[in-house]
Fold these 3 entries.
Entry 1:
Amino acid sequence: MAEERQAQGQQRAREHQPRGITYQDFEGLRPPVFTTFPEPLAADDWLRTIESKFTLLPGLTEQEKARFAAQLLQGPAGAWYATFQAMQQQDHVVTWEELRTAFRAHYIPASLMEQKQREFRELKQGSRTVMLYVQMFIQLSQYSPRDVADDPSRAARLLQGFDPTLQTHLGRRYQSFSELVDTALDMENRLRVANEDQKRKRQASSAQGSSQKQKANYQQQPRYVIRPNQSGWFHRAPQQQQYPAYRAPTQLPAPRAPTAPGPGNPCFNCGKTCHFSRECRAPRRIQGPTPAGGSQQSKPKGNTPRKGQVHYIHLEQIPVGEPVLAGTFSANGHPTVVLFDSGATHTFISQSYASKHGIKTSCIKESYNISAPGNPINTNLIVKRLLLNIGGEDFIISPVVLPHQGIDIILGINWMNENHAVLDIGSRTVQLKSNVSGKILKIHIPSQKHIEPTVNATELQEIKKIPVVCDFPDVFPEELPGPPPDRNVEFSIELVPGTAPVSKRLYRMAPDELKELKTQLQEQLDKGFIRPSSSPWGCPALFVEKKDQGGKRLCVDYRPLNAVTVKNKYPLPHIDILFDQLAGARVFSKIDLRSGYYQIKIREEDIPKTAFLTRYGLYEYLVMSFGLTNAPAFFMYMMNSVFINKLDKFVVVFIDDILIYSENEEEHKEHLRIVLTRLREHKLYAKFSKCAFWLKEVGFLGHILSEKGVAVDPNKVESVLNWKQPESVTEIRSFLGLAGYYRRFIKDFSKTAKPMTSLTKKNAKYTWSPNCEEAFQSLKKSLTTTPVLAQLDVTKPFDVYCDASGKGLGCVLMVVAYASRQLRKHEANYPTHDLELAAVVHALKIWRHYLLGNTCHIYTDHKSLKYILTQPELNMRQRRWLELIKDYDLEIHYHPGKANVVADALSRRAHCNVIEARPTVRVLCCEIDEIELPMEQLAELYNLIIEPTIKEQIITAQKQDKGLAFIHAGMDEKKRACFTLDDQGVLWFKNWLVVPKDMELRKRILDEAHTSMFTMHPGSNKMYQDQKQKFWWTRMKREIATYVSECDVCQRIKADHLKPAGMLQPLALPA
C-alpha cells in the first residue's frame, strides 16, 4: 500500500509539474492570420490583437512571441518576413520588439498615423447620435494617446465635439468620461421627448393654423429633396441634416442636481424607478424619430389595409432609354437583381425568388394594398429579416412579398431614407451611409444590359444534360455580371521605396482600332472594371489579337510599372508534384475560369497605379489587369485560399485551370459538387465552352491523364516523331547533330548511329539501307522516351535554346521537350529580328506550364534580342509579344550559332522549307542527261546602267533656268565660292545638287521623299535631313515644312505631341 501511495504521489507531481508553452497553446486562442492589409489600420489592429493574446499566456519569452507571431504571417506578409529574417545575422534570434518595430515601419507609415490624429482632433458630432459619436471617438482616440492621456482630458475632448445645442445643456466640465457619456445620453432623451411634445402640440393646433405653420411642424424631421440632375433624372440628397437637429424647447427645464431614484425619476433607458439611466445595465436604447415610410411602419388602427405604390415589377416594363439603377448584389449569399426605385413606397421581394432560395415568409394581420402596373395587388406576406450585401456592407431589410413581381428585390423610399441614399443616374452611382459602422459607400451600378449573369441559351441546354453541373448554371454565365465582390484578399502593388510615378506617352492607333477602343472602354465602364482617373501614373494602352475567338483584347503596356514593382515570390505549383497526387484516379473534370483576372479587385490605394492612357482620356483599373507582373502569383494565392483544404485530395489548381479527379463516379459526383459550390460561394465564374466533365482521359498542362497514369501529350514530341526519312547527306548530318547533342542520355549511341554515320563519309555512295532505317527509328524513339524527357529538375533554372531560319522555328527545353514548326506564309516576310523573337515566343507558349513561375534562361544566336526588354521603340508585333513575355521571369542570352545545334537542327528540317524548294544538282544533272539535249556554250556581254531620271530632269532644268545665270557669272567672287561646276556643266552647292526654281520639279522631289513606298510619310525634320544630303535650293526647309503640314494623310493619322489645351478663360466684361 505504501508503494502504491508513493507511486500515486509521483504521478500527481508529474501532472502538476509546469511545462513550457507550445505553439498549440497559442493557436488555441485563435489568433488572426495576417496576409496583407486592405488598409494600414488593419495592420495596427492585428498587432493589438496579437499582443492581447500574448497577455493570456504569461511566461512567454520575447523570442517565443516573435516565433509565434511569424507563424501567422502568410502570403505577401510571409514573403516580407522571409526577407526580414534573411537580413538578420546568422546566429541572431529575432525578438518580439524587433519584429513589431520592423512590422510597423513597413505596414503602418507615419503619414497615415498623422492623418488619423488629424481626423481625431477635427472630429465633431455633427448629425450623428451620441452613441455613434462616442464609438467613433473611442476608435480614433487610440491613434492620438497624448490628447486623451487621462480621464478628464478624454471628457473635455469629447465635450468639445458635441452638438452646440447639446453642449449648452450639458454645461459644466466633467471629470469622468463615463459620467459625461451617461449625462449626454440622458440629455439626448430629454431633448427628444421635449421635441415630440412640442410637435404634438403644433399638430393639435394645425387645423386652425395656416399652411405655413403646417410646414414648420416637419422641420425637425429628416427630409429628402428630389431634384433633377444634369442627366434629366432624379436623385435624393439630405436637405440639411440627416438626423433631427437639437432645438431647445420653450418648456424644457434646466438640468438639476441628481436626486434619489424614485417613482418620479424613472430610468430613461429601461423605465424602472430603482436606478438612474447611467447605472442601468440594460442595453442602451437609442430612439430616433422614424422617417416616414421607414422599415418599422406605423400600425394603423383596425384592419384598414396599408397602402403602397410601385412603378415597375418587371424589368421588361421599363421603357428603353429610361434612366434606371438596377444591379446584381448578394442577398443571403445568393446573386440577386436589385432595383433602386424612388417611386416605390416600400421595399418589395419577389415571391418566386423567395421560394426558390428558401427564404422564410411570415403572415401579418394587416394586409398591404399595393398600387402596381395593371391591377392593384393585395398581400399580407413579409420577410422579417433578410441580409442584403451592397458594396461589402450588410444591410438588414424587411421586404413586402409581391406574388407577381419579376424583379428579385425592389428597394423603395423607406429603405433609402433609413440609409441616407443619394442616387445619381448620370454617373450611375449610389451613395449610402451605414447606420452600424457609419461608413459611407459609393457604388457604381453597371448599365441594364449587365445587371445579371445570364447563361447562353445553347450552353444552358448543354449544362442541363450534365449530372451535378446542371444544378449550377449560375457558375457558367455568358459574361461576367459586373465588378467582383469584396473578398478578404485584394491585389496589391508594392513599389520599390523611393519610386516616383511614371507616365509614358500613348501609342498611336489606326482608325478601326480607335473605334474598337471606344467600344471596349464603354463596356468596361458599364461593367465596373475601370473608371476615369486623375492619377499621375500612366501606361499606354494597346490591342492584341485574341486567340480563341478572334477580335482584339485591350491590354496595357505595364513595363514601366513592372520595373519598379517588388516581385511577389509566391510559388506556382510544379507539375511533377501535381501529378504525383493523381495515383488511382479514373474520372476527371476540368474547369477554366472566365476572365479570371477580372474577378479580383485591386486594393483601393493601388488603383491609381494601374492608370492607362488612351486617345479618349485616362482610366484606371478597379480589377486585376493583364500585364501586371505579380498577377499570376497573386491569382494562384487566391485560388489556393479558395480550395485550401481540398488541394491534393481531389483538386489540382494551376492559376485559372482547375482539375477534379476521383477514383470512381460516385466520389466524383461529390467532389464536383464541392468544387462548384466553392465557386458559387466565392462568386467565381467559369467559361463553359472551355470546361470538360466526366472524362476518362483529359489533357491538362501538356499531359494526357487517364486511369493508366500520366502520359506525354503526343503534340509535345510530334516534331521528333514525325521527322521524315533523310534524303541527303545534309539532312543526315542535321539529324545526327540533334541526336549527338544528347548522346550521353542514349545508351550505345555510336553503335546505333553507325549505319547513318557511314553515309556521311567522303566519297561514300548515298544508299538508304534497312539498317539505316532501323537506326533512324531507334534514335527517334530514344530521343522521345525516358530518361530524356523525364529529367526535369525544378530546383534549377530552365534553359531554352531557340533558333529561326528561312525554313522554320526550332526550340528545345533542356532537356524536357523538343519543338519545331515550319514558317507560316506571312512569317516568311518577317525581318530577321522578329523571326528570332517569334522562336522565343513559340517556346514560351508551348512550355508555359513549365516556365511560368520559374527562372528560365533563353539562348539565341541573334545577339540583338538581349535588349528587347529595354528597347524603347517597338512595332505592333513586338508589343503584342511583349505582353506574353512579361509574365515570365526570364533572361535572354547570346549563344553562337555553331553552339546552338539542337534548335538550329529543328528549325532547318527539310519538311519546314516553305521558302525554297529546288532539286539537288546531282538529280537535276541526271535528268538532263536522260533527255540528251545538245549543249552549246555561248558568251554575251551586257552592260545595264540604271540612273535616276529625276537627276536628268534637274540637269536639264538648270540649263533652262535664267535665275542661275547670275550664279554662273559670279562664281569667281568670294560670295559665290561655295558653288562649283563639274565636268558636265552641272551646278553644285558644296556637295549638293542645285535644284532650279521649277515648282513642278520641286513638287516631284518632295512627293518622292514623302509619299513613296520607301519613305512612309516622314515628319518635316526627318524629311529635311534626308533631302539636304542630296539637294539644295533657297528656303528648302520652309517649303518642306509647308508641304508636310498640307499632307492630308499626316493630318488625319498622326497625333499631336502636345499636352491637351486647357479650359478657355472668359474675357473680362467691359466696364
Entry 2:
Amino acid sequence: MNQRETKQTDLDERDALNRARALAHASFIVEAPAGAGKTELLTQRYLKLLATVKEPEEIIALTFTNKAAAEMRNRILLSLENAERQTTEMAPHKLVTRELANAALKQSSIQQWNILQQPSRLRIMTMDALCSSLTRQMPLLSKFGGQPAVSDDTEAHYLEAARLTIAQIAHETDEHDTVTTALRYLDNNSEKLIALLARMLAMRDQWLPLAGQFQGADIEQLSKNTEAALKYLIAEALKDVLAIVNPVTQDALMPLARFAASNLSDQEAHDFAPLLDWQAPLKDDAEDLLLWQALAKFLVTQSKTFRKKLDVRYGFPATTEGKQKKEDYFAIINQLENSEIVGRVLSLPAIASLLDSQPVIQALTRLLMLAATHLWAVFQSAGEVDFVAIAQSAQLALENEQGATDLALKLDYKISHLLIDEFQDTSPVQMRLIAKLIEGWQPDDGRTLFCVGDPMQSIYRFRKADVSLFLQAANFGIGHLPLTRLQLSRNNRSHPTVVKWINQAFQQVFPLRDDMHHGAISYRPFTATRAPAAEESVVVHPLIIDNGDDEESPDSKHIEACYVAQLIAEIRQKDAHQKIAVLVRSRSHLRELVTEIRRNHPQLAFQAVEIEHLNDRQTVQDALSLTRALYHRADRVHWLNILRAPWCGLTLADLHILAGDDHHSTIWQLMQSQERLARLSDDGRTRLMHLRTILAQSLATQGRMPVRRWLESTWLRLGGGKCLVEVGDNRDVQVFFDLVERLGFNGHLDFTALESGMQKLYARPDIEAPDNLQFLTIHKSKGLEFDTVILPALNRKPRHADHDLVLWQEVLVNQQPHLIAAPLTTRKEISGKKSSAFTTYDFLKSLETQRNDNEIVRLLYVAATRSERQLHLIATMKVSQKGELKPTSKSMLEVLWPAVQMDFAVAKPLATSASQNTTMDIASFQPRLQRLSSPEIIAINQSPETQKPAPILNLNSISDTQAIHVTDQLGPQALYRHSGILAHLYMEMMAAELTAWNIEKLQQCLPAMQAWLRQQGHATPMAKQAAATVLQALQTTLASKTGQWVLSHHESAGSELSLMQTTALEGDMQVRNLIIDRTFVEDGERWIIDYKLTDLGEHPDFNVTAQLHMNQLERYAGLFKTEGLPIRKAVLFLTLGELVEL
C-alpha cells in the first residue's frame, strides 16, 4: 500500500469513526465537506434523539432556507415510513437510519405521539421562522403589537428613514448638531449621506450592538480600548511577516539597508530613512511598525512583488562595493516567498490616525442610532418590517435589562436538543440568538447542541454570514457550552477523477491555515466513495486571443459564448439525458451565452433561474415606457418609445416628421397637430391615430380605477397582448403588472419604488423546458448536483465593492472584546488639509477585502464540487504586449491560476477571422423595427379580465425598404403537449364554476384557444386545427353525464392540485412535485381522476390505454393514504367523455 492509499484509508477510518461518534449523547460541531451526506447524518441524529425524549417538541432543528427545512423534514418522515413498512431493500448506509427510525417509532408508540399522523410535532424550521415564532409568543417584550408583515424588499423604507434623519437639520435640537457634523465631514453632500445611511440601515444588525459602546462613552477610555485593539491587529499582521523575514534574515539585511539609506541624498525624506539606524531585529510589535514599513519598501515594489532591479536611486551606486551589496541583496531576497504578505505591512495604519478620528466616530454613531430610530417609525407606519427587525425582536423576547425573560426560561425548560444545519452560514445576530437559547445549559445536564456544516462552503458574506463564527465555535464552543469537533472526509457525489483534481487544485489556492481575523479556511481534503465511471474528466479550456481585444470586449465575450454553446451541444449529442449546469459568479456573465443560444442554438432549451433581469425583457420595457408616458406627458424618451413599440411601430421617417423639428412641445401635443399628421405616411397616420384614440380615452379615465387595471387595460387595447413573441413574454409582463399593483395607491404610483423593484425581479424560467440544462449563479447552485458542470467567464472582472459610512471591527484582546470603528475616508481632514496616509478605515477595508478574497476561493470550490462526472473550466485571456498571460485582477482565474497556469501556457491562440468580428460599423448599422402587421382596434369597453393576451407571430421586422415575416415552427409533439395543457386549463375553469359553462360559451372561446396556441409558437394553421380538436373534446366531455359528474361540486374537491411526494430510490430520497388533474370525495370514497386528450381520429381500446397510466395514478393515490378513505382511480378520456376506472 503506497503513501496515498494509506492516507485515504486513514481518512476513511476517521470518517467512519466520527460518523458513529456524532450519534452519541453529547454536543458536537461537525465539518462535512461537499457531498459528504450531512443531511443523512442530521436525519440519523434527529431520529436517535427522538427515541430519548418524552415529547418530540424537545428537539429543534434549524436551517437557513425553507427548501432545506422541507428536505430535512421529508427525509425524517420517509425514514419513519420505511421503518413502519419494514422496507428491506435499501443501501447499507441506510440500515443505520432504519434502526434509529425503529427506535423512534417505538418511543412514539410508548408515549402515544402518533408521530406519522401528527408530523407537525416535528420542530424543523428556518432561523427566520424561529425568530417570528418568538416575537409572536412575546409581542410586548419584542416591541411588536400585532405581528407585522415581513418584507424582503425594504430599500424604500431605508431611504425614507435616512431622509427623515437628515431632515433633522431643520430643527434646533441636539439632532441638528449631529446631522450638521456628519454633513460637514462629507463636504455637505446630503445625497451621498442619505445613500450611505440607507446602506448602513440594511446591515444594522452588524453594528447596532457595537454602536451603543460609543454613545456617551468616555473619550479617553474609549481611545485606550481602540488603541489596544488596533495594536493587537497590527501585531497579528506582523506575525505573518516575521515568519517570512525572520530575525536571521533581518540580521543579513541590516547592513544592506543601512548602506542603501546612507547613500541617498535626502535621507530624512526618503522611504528608507528609518533604516539608517536599524540595529536590532524587528519584533511583531506595533511599536516597530515604522521600521517594518520602511523595510517593506526596501524589499517590495508598489505592486507588492519582490524587487528585481536596484540602482543608485535606491542607494546602490554602480561602484564595486555597490555591486557586491546588490549581489548580497538578491541572494537574500531570492530565498523569500509571499511578497504579498510582506507588502501588506504598507497597508497598516498609524495609531494616531485612529485616535484623531474618535470625535467623528461618536458623531456618526449618534447619527446611525438616530436613523435606526426613524426606521422603526417608518416600519410601524408601513405595517411591515425586514428580517433584521424580526431577529432583533426575537432577542428582546429572550432577554431584557433584568436578564432572561419568562419566555427564555420557558424555552430553557422545554428545549433539550438543538440541531443546526449549514452552520457555516451563521451570522453574528443568529449566533447571539443561539447563545441565548442555550445560555443556561451545562455540559453534563443531558441537553445537547449539534452543529454541522462545511466552512469551505461559506459563501454568503453578502447575507452577513461569518465563517469565523464556525471556527470560534469549533475552538471555544458557544457561550459556556464546549463542542467536540468532528471532521468527515468522504465525498459520495463526485467520481474519483473529479475528486482527485479538486483536491490537487484547491490545496494550492486555499489559505495555508485557518485565520478568524481574515475569514480564512485551510483546505480539508476528501476521498471519493463512488467507483470510476466512463467519461469522467476535468477539462481546462484556455481561450487565448491575440487580436488586440481584451477579456471584457464584446468580441471576446461573443467568442466565449459561441464556444460554450458549442460545448453544450457536443455534450448533449453524446448523452441527451445527462444534467448539465452552467454556473457563473455574476448573472451578467451569462448575458452573451443566453443571447447566443436563443439566436443560433434554439434546440438547446434551458432553464435560467433568476438570471435575466425583468427590465432587460423588451416586452417589459415597452410596458414600463407606457406606464411612464401615461404618468408624465413631458417624458419625451418614453413617449417616443411607445410610438416605436410593436403596437404602433412608427418608422424613423415618420417619427422625424412628427417630432424632429420641435424639441419643446410634448409628444402628446405634437400628436394633436393635424398639420403634422397630414405629412405622415398613410401607414404611419393610421397607426398613430389608433394609438392616439386609445391613449386619449385612457388619460380621460386616469384615477377612476385601480392603477393596475387602468394600465393593463390600456396595454391590452393597444395590442400589447398581441406583441408577445416568446413563450415567457406573457409571464414576464404579468410579473411587471403584479409589481404595479403592489405599488399603486389611489391612482398614484411610486416610480422610485418601481425602479427599485424592477432591479430585484427576474424573468421567470421556462417551465416547459427540460431541467437537464440549467443556467445558475454559483450561489443558487449550492446544495445541487449535476452530471456535468461548466464554469465559463472565469477571467471576468467582479463588481466594484461598496463603501460604508463607518466600519466596525470587534477584537478579542486577552479574551476581552475591544472595538475599533473608523469613519469613511474622505481624503480631506476637517481643517481642509489633504491626507494621503493609509487610514484606519483603509486598514479595516483591506481586512474586508481579504475576507472577500478568501470567500471567492470558497465560491469556486462550491462550483467545482457540484460536478459528478465532468467539470469544464473556461476562461478567455489576452496575450499582453510583452507576450505574457496574466489573469484579470480579482477574477476567479487569478484565484485558480496556480493550478491551471500550465494549461494556459501550452495553449495556442485562437484562430481569428473577419467572420468572428461581431462589432458592427456604425455607418452600416440599420435599425430593425418589429411591429404588428396592422393595428387592431380593440373594443374600449372590453375589460382586461376578458382579454386574453394573444400574440401575433407574423410581426414585421422592417427597415425602410423591406419587411421580414417572422414564422416559428414547432414539432407535432410540442403541439400535442400544448393542446393537452390547454384542455386541462379549461377543465379547471369549468370545474371551478360549472353552471357558468355551456356548449355555446366553449364555442366562443375558440379564438382565445387559437391565440393561446399561437403564443406558444405554433403557426396559425396548426393552431387552428389543434384548437378545434381541444374544443371538440371539451364540448363532448361537457355534454356527457360522466363529464358533468366529474366537474360538478364535491366534498374536498381539487383541480390541478399540486402536491409533493418523497420516495426512496436506491436508498436516496427523491422529492417530486405531482399535479393531480381532479380529485374529490364522493360517498366516503376518494376519487383520483386523470384527464387524457387522445389524438383526433384515433379510438383504441381505452381500457388498455387506461392501464398504461396505472403507475401514475398509484403514485397519486399514495399521497392520500393517510386520509384513511377507500381510493378509486380512473382516467377520463376527453374526446369521448368516457370514464375508465382502474
Entry 3:
Amino acid sequence: MFRKRLVATAAAAPMLLFAGAALAETTISDTRTSGVATGSIGTGGAADDIKIASAGKVKPTASGPAVTVNSNHKVVNEGEISTSDVNNSTGIQVNAGVTTTVTNKGVIRLDETYEAKDTDNDGDLDGKFATGAGRYGIRVMPGGTVTGDIINDTGGGITIEGNNSAGISVESNLTGNLINRGSISVTGDNARGVQVLGDVSGNVDLRGAIGALGENATGAAIDGDVGGKLIIQGSIASTGYRYTSRPADKAVRDKLDADDKLQGGPAVRIAGNVGGGILLDRPPVAGVDYDGDGIPNDKDDDDDNDGKKDTEDKDLDNDGIDDSLEGTASIVQNGGAPALLIGSDTQSITINPVGTGADQRGLVIRGSIVANGVYDDVDATGVQIGTTPTSAFTTDIKGGIRVQGSITAASFNGEAKGIYLSQGAIADRIDLEGNLLAAVTATSKSLADESSKGATALLIGKGAVTNSVYNSGIIGAIVNGEKGDAVAIRDQEGNLSFVQNTGKITAVINPTDDADDKDDADNDPSNETVTGKAIAIDVAAAKQGVRVRQYGVNDGDDDLDNTTKDPDADGDGVDDADEPAMVGNIKFSAFNDTFDLENGTYKGDIDFGAGNDVYNVGTTTTGAEAIGAIRNSADGLTVNVNKGKLTITNAEVINGTAVNIGAGASVIFTVDPTTNANTRFNVTSASIADGAKLGLTVTDLISGPQTYTVIKTAPGGLTAGNIDQSLLGNSPYLFVAKATANTSAGEVNIELRRRTSSEMSLTVNQSAALDAVYAALGKDNKVRDAFLGAETREDFLKLYDQMLPDQGEGLFSSLDMLTRTVSRLTATRPDLKQRYGPDSFWIQEVNVQVMRETGVTIGSDTKAFGFVGGYEAMGADGGALGATLAFVNAEEKDDVAQVGEQTNISLLEAGIYWRRSIGKFTINARGAGGYAWLSGDRVFIDPKTNLIERASADWNGFTGVASLSASYEQEIGRFYMRPTVSLDYLYLREGERKEGGKSNAIKLEVDERTSSRLSAMAELAFGATFGRDLWWRPEVRVGYRQHLAGEVGDTVFRFVGGQPVTLVATEPGDGAVVIGLSLKAGTAMSYVALEGEYESADGEDRYNLQLAGRVMF
C-alpha cells in the first residue's frame, strides 16, 4: 500500500511543477520609467508573465516599447502604460514567433503635449491634429507567426496621438483571435484604430469603441486574411474633419480652412479573405430561431437550444457572451470615404457565409452604417464592395448580403450611395430587411449651376454581379433639389434578373427654392423646373428578361391587439400595415420583362423597353393599385388588371399584344384636350369582364363634347361584358363621361361632355356664373387642376363657391339695423318727466350680428361693432334738436369663406335729429350721411393639393339715412305701455373695385352697386318704472317690420378679361317679427340702458345688443 502511494506521488510531481510555472507571474505595482520585457522580467533575469496591477505604471521616456513580449509568456495590463511626446514608441510590443496572450484591461496612452491653436483668428483651430509619429498601443511585429490572443478587454482603453500610428497593429500572422471589447482612440494622419496586416486564424472580434481622426485615418483596417469570423458589435468611426457637425450658416462654413476638412479613410476596410463571414451584430432578442430547428419563434421557448428557457437564458444566441454586455454595431464615416469598404487592389478576396439558413450570406448587417459627407461637394458611400471601377480583382461575397439593420448615406451637393457594388464585386443576392437610404441635398443655386449628382440607395456598378434583390424593409433615395436623380435600385452591369418587394421602395425628388436660387423671383419650390428623375428600379442594362414582383406578407398582429383583426381597407387578406409600396419610375430592359404588382401600391412611370413584356396588376385574390405612365418601344406588351385599380397617366398610344380587365378591376385612362390625345391601347385582343370599371382623368378643359377611343383591337379581338359606369362618375365633376364597347369594331370609347348646371343642381346665381368660371379656369393651370381633381359635387361646390364674389347682403342688413338703432335712441327722452331746458350728451355702444341662410345666394355671417355719440338741446316748447356722430365696423364672412377671407366696412356717419313731445305723444325725425371704406379679401384653397391663392381689393362708398317715428306712452300706475310706429330708409352706394392677386383665374372686377331699403315698423312696448330719484325700468317690446321698397343691389362682376356676370340679390322676406328687451336705470340728470333686439325674417336672423348712457347738464 505504501509503495503505490509513493508511485502516485512521484508521478504527479512533474505536473505540479508545470502548474506552478503556469501560475507564476511578475506583478508591477510601482512606477517604472524604462521598458520591461517578458524574456527578462523574472527573478535573476528569467522569463516570466507580466501583470501590471491597477496601481502599476510603466512610463518610459525614450523611444521603443514600454512592454515587450519576447518569450512565450503572457502580459496583462490593469494599470497604466504611457508616454508623452515620445516618437516611435509602443505600449505593448509582441515579437514575432512567440506564444502569448496579451490582455489590456487598463490604460495605454501614448500622447503628446501639442495642441492646435487658432493662428489666423478666424474662430476655428488650425494646424495638424498631431505632430509626433510612429506610436502603437499594442503592436505585433512582422516577421513570423504569433500564437495566442490579442485582447483589449472590457474596461481597457487605448489612446494614441501621433501620425502613422495605430491602437492595435497586427503585422505578422496570428494563430488566435484579435478581440477588442474596450475603447481605442487614435488621432493623426494615417491613423489606424485597429490594423491587421498579417493573417488571423481565428476571429477578429470588435465589440468595443474605435475612433480614428486625421487625414486618411481608418477605424479598422483588416488587410490580412481572417480564418474565422469578423464580428463588429461596437462603434467604429473615422473622419478627417475637425468638426463633424455641419454649420447651418454658410458664412461659417466658408470660414473653415482646408485643414478643417481633411478627408479620412474608411471607418472599416477589409482587404483580405474572411473564412467565417462578416457580421455586424446586435444583442439577441427572444423569438429568433437561433438554433434553426424550424419551430416557430412564438412557440419555441428555447431559441438557441441550449437547455435554458429564454426567460432565464442570459445568452440567447449562445455565442458565449452575456447578452447584457453585447452592443450594436455602429459604423460612421464623416467624409468622402466609404463607411465600410470590402475589397483589395492587390488580390481577389472571398468572404464566406456567416452562418446557415437566412444567415448563409458573406455579409450580414444587423447594426447601423452611416456615411455623411457633411460639407459641400463631398460624396458619401455607406457600403462599398470592390475598390475602383477599373480594378482587376474580384470581391466575392459568398451567399450575398443580408441587411437587417440600417445603412444611410447623405451628401450635400455630392453623390450619395447606400450600397455600391463596384467592378469585380460579386454578391449573388441582396436581402434588405432593414433600412437603406441615400440622400442628397443640393446647394441652392440656379438650375444651370446646380449639381446634377444624385442619390442611389443600391448601385450595382459595371463589372459587378448581383442576380436578385429581396426587399422586405425600406429602400429610399431622396434628392432635395431639382437636377440630380434619385434612384432606389440601379443595375449598370445587367445581371440582375429578379427584384422582389414586400416592403417599401421610394425614390423622391423634393424641389427647393430660396434667395440663392435665381431661377425665379419667388421662394416657392412648387414652381421650380425639375430635370432630375425619381427612379425606383433601373434595370435598363439587363442582359436578360427581368421580373419585378411586389406582394404583401402578413407579419403578425401589427396593432398588438389580439382581440381584433388588423385593418384591411381593401379586404384582400393583407392588412394595411403589411401592404407593400413602391414610388418612382421603373426602367426595364430590351428583353422579355414582367412586373407582377400583386398587392400594395405603385406610383411611377414604367418603361418596358422592347421585348414581350407582361404587366400584372392584382391577382384573383389580392388587389393592387398603380398610377403612372406606361410606355414600351415594341408591340409585345400584355396588361392584365385582375383586381385593383390601374390609372394610366400618359395620354399616348400604347402598342401591345393584349389588355385584359377583370371583374374586380378598374382602369382609368387619361385625356389631354390640349393636344386632343388620350391613353389608347392598340392591341391584338382585349377582354373586359362583366362589372369591370373604366374611368377618366382629364388634364385640361374641353371646348365641346368629345369621344375618345381608349382600346382598339384587331377585328373580332374585343370581348366585353357590361361595363360598370360608376367609376366614370368619379371623373372630374365638371364633365359627364360614358363608356361604350363596340365589339364588332373592336373599340372601347369614352364620351365626354361638360356637365350642365341643372345636372349639377346649381342655384340661379351659381348657374349664371358657370360659363364665366369655366372660362377663367384656363388662365391658371393650378386652379384648373384643382377643379379637375374634384370628383364629387361636394368637392366641386367647395371650390366653385370660392370663385364667386361676396354680394354684401349681410353687410347691408347690418348697416340697416345699426342706423335704425341710432334712430330709436334719438327718439328717446333723456328723463322720465316732461322737463325741458338742460342740454344732454349721450353715447351708445352697439353690437349687431346678421346670420343669413344659403338660398339663391350664399349664406353669410356678419358681425358689426361701433360707437354712437350725440348732443342735444331741449327747449321749453317741448322740442329738442340734436346731432349724432357714429363710427362702426362690420365684417361679413360667407358660408364658404376660407381662413383669412372676409369683406369689411368701416363707416363714419354724421346726422341731425329733431324730437318733439306733446303730452304723451312723441314724434322724431332723423337724417344722416356717411362715408364708407370697404375692403375684401378672398382666398381660394384646395385641400387636396394645398393650393392657396389670394385676391383682394379696396373701395369706397357712402350712405344716406332718413327716419321718422311716433309713439304714445300710457302709464297705468307704475306700469306703462307704448305703441310706436316708424319709417326707416337706408341708401348705400359702393364704388367699383378691381382685385389684385397672382392668379388671373381668381381675380375679379366688380361694378359699382347701389342698395336701398325702406321699411315700416309697428311695435308695442310693455314696462314698469321703479323708484323716484333713482329709478330703473325693465321693458319688453314686440312688433313687426314690413319691407316697403328698395332692394339690395345685384352684383355684376367679371373675371379678368371675361364677360360680365350678374348675381341677383335676394331680400330677406317681406317682413320680420321683432322682439326687444331693455333695462334702463337713472336719475333726474342721467341714465344708462342695456338693450337687446332680435328680428326674424325669412332666411335672415338679426341680433342687436347695445349699451347706452346719457348725461344732462
